[in-house]
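Hey, I was hoping to borrow your eyes for a little while. There's a protein on my desk that I can't quite get my head around. The fold is given in discrete form, as structure tokens running alongside the sequence. I'd be grateful if you could look everything over and explain what you see. Here's the protein in full, and shout if anything looks odd to you:
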Amino acid sequence: MLKAYQKVKAELNAKVKLIVVTKTISAEQIQILYNAGHRDFGENRVEVLTEKYKRLPKDIRWHFIGHLQRKKVKKLLPMPELIHSVDRLELLDEINKRALQDQRIQNVLLQIHVAQESSKHGFSLQDFEEKCQEIQSAKYSNIQIKGLMAMASFCEDQNQIKNEFLEVQNMFLKVKPYFSEAFCALSMGMSSDYHIAIQCGSTMVRVGSTIVRQF
């Protein structure tokens, strides 16, 4: 596992952060990577993250990367350093409400839907652009919007994957001037396509199976 982790790390330039996806590995296995110096880990279920959060060192930077239900926001906060999967305004409202109650600022990414699969979530490009003004409004005083997140279609067509990532990158560059200086993260790319995502400007890649299948 450590060799696979080190191989992935070596492929990334200094501008790209590796989020190790841990949904299939135990707290003990995460500890191995922690002992090797890694600090950024991603979980996609609130209940699983809660258990691992309790058992592992508190300087881990947890990233919540799964689809998030409004009713689970209260349980999720304040564990994650960054929520990658904010896919609708109602969820943004709930996160802001809970962060306000906790007197904290919650970092989030806004999820864009460009993949062909309807099972994936996020704002459409058109919907996101139309709602940008509302998203930037002062009512989200306890949220720091750090950038965008997206998943490409799960397919063999690398041109399609690249074009989808480029659509998100173009939107990111288009709206960046309207957000604060903190708006600098573009979370794109998983085990099957992170090399393409990096070519398209990704600053965070969420890699799981490429690393953890070595266990």
